[in-house]
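During the second half of the funding period, the structural biology subgroup turned its attention to how the target accommodates small molecules. The most pressing case was tetradecanoyl-COA, which had performed well in the primary screen but for which no bound structure existed. We therefore specified the complex as follows and requested a full 3D prediction, including the ligand pose.
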Amino acid sequence: MDDQIYDGESESSPAEKLRAKQEKKNLRKAQKKAAKNSSSSAPVMSPAAKQAELQEKVRILVNQLAIREAMQPSSTGNSQRVKDMSSHKFWSTQPVPKHGETIEEEGPIEENTPHDQIRKEPYTLPKEFEWSTLELNDESELNELYTLLTNNYVEDDDAMFRFDYSGEFLKWALQPPGYKKTWHVGVRVSATKRLVAFVSGIPADIRIYNSRQHLVEINFLCVHKKLRSKRLAPVLIKEITRRSHLEGIFQAVYTAGVVLPRPISKARYFHRSLNPKKLIDTKFSSLPSNTPMTRHVKKYKLPSETSTPGIRPMLEKDVPAVRVLLNKYMSKFNFVAVFKTDEDVKHWILTKENVIWSYVVENPDTKKVTDFFSFYYLPSSVIGNPNHKTVNAVYLFYYAVQESDEKARKSRLQFLLKDALILAKLKDVDVFNCLDILENKMFIDELKFGPGDGYLNYYMYNWRCREMGSEDVGVVML
Ligand SMILES: CCCCCCCCCCCCCC(=O)SCCNC(=O)CCNC(=O)[C@H](O)C(C)(C)COP(=O)(O)OP(=O)(O)OC[C@H]1O[C@@H](n2cnc3c(N)ncnc32)[C@H](O)[C@@H]1OP(=O)(O)O
């Protein structure tokens, strides 16, 4: 494989020219606004309005502080380092907010590019490589993607574990209703046709604060280990951006372990041991000092049966009720996935063995579905361990409960999630993971989840908005 360095970032697209124009316009607007604010006399406010304004300012400051604090490099591992904007050769050219920029108005950073001005031909790759749109319904192409990711995708900071998404999982993640094959973007070595890089997009609907958006969700960006640091990732990102623009989509949502300009929010991973001995053998966790293994194992022991009356696997007939429950529950968060149709819920929530499991609670008297939860199966390969190849992990996905009272909701969640742990244990899962998003902090401590080393930063492309705490986030990405 030729490792020639290529910089695909020198071509400037019409969108980039438009962006520069828009930035100038924004600057002029901000200057005008500042001049207006400084010359006009302040309106008279009622004490209640003043109090509300103060509370809002404090809330914003607290959120900003929480994010800044979480972004400090020392305690959070190397991937959480915040680099200077000037050292982001690629990201400093993109329509994303800059680190440190104060955000006053929500909205797009650059205007939509008119269709006839969108570049028609793919970005140029180094001459040894070619673009290849993957056909995931073809078993052998799906297998090529599986092999690329299983050997080269996300690892923890210490390179001990690597995500091992199954082929079936990838089909689920990449072929939701309305998916576009052209957003499954591969790069092959022209001579051998070997797949060496990938990025994907899927259509998604979200609400961020009060803005509903149909956009693209970007995931599975991967460059083969032997081709790292050669600026291939920016070319892949520009190409998926171009293909999104061609479909009339100008905003994106994505998550990454690394800190880029600029997170909307930052969440932390929490882990609940189900098989403590194996987790210690694989060094996924360590035995606390002065704790014998028997006591440690006992701490995480669970009942062998669930205890919520009416709990059962979700069935297709539950889809409409689950959609209503879920969208209602999501209304309390500021950044959420919107499940527009029953088809969406059928695809994303209904059980697919060894990919996602979902359970509902049906009230034994009324037969109404009152709650549901789901978790997806994503094992990690254990790198270089002679005794264990895989850690079997599940991740909490979407859920909903109905209690409006916070105390009642907390106790319901603790009750339900305990059953989720039991059900996962019955499937021979070693660890149950979640982020501190949604209302997960209501059960994390009580159900003996412990904080991990990993963080997940949430981003939007071409959308400026205020930062938020992880408890405001209701988007679960795979
Ligand atoms: C409107 C539609 C818009 C659609 C697009 C929306 C944006 C989508 C954005 C993508 C969302 C992806 C969501 C996921 O899938 S997150 C999962 C990412 N994948 C992995 O972590 C797998 C293992 N790692 C790799 O495969 C490579 O290290 C990757 C491919 C990550 C980088 O390859 P490589 O290591 O060989 O680097 P390079 O020399 O080619 O390029 C260096 C440039 O790339 C910037 N970089 C590094 N990591 C990431 C990252 N995770 N997101 C965005 N940018 C990233 C980096 O800051 C630098 O730019 P700058 O700092 O100099 O400026």
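Two results from this model are relevant to the next phase. Residues 14-39 form the longest helix (26 residues). The pocket of tetradecanoyl-COA is lined by residues 88-91, 152-154, 216, 218-223, 228-234, 237, 240-241, 244, 249-252, 254, 256, 258, 260, 461-462 (CB under 6 Å).
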